[in-house]
Amino acid sequence: MPRIAVVIVGWNSWDVLPRCLSCLAAQTFTDFSVTVIDNASTTPIPAELQAAHPLVNVVRNTSNLGFAAANNLAVNQHTCQSEWVALLNPDAFPQPRWLAELMLASAA
Question: Into how many domains does the chain fold?
Answer without folding.
Answer: 1
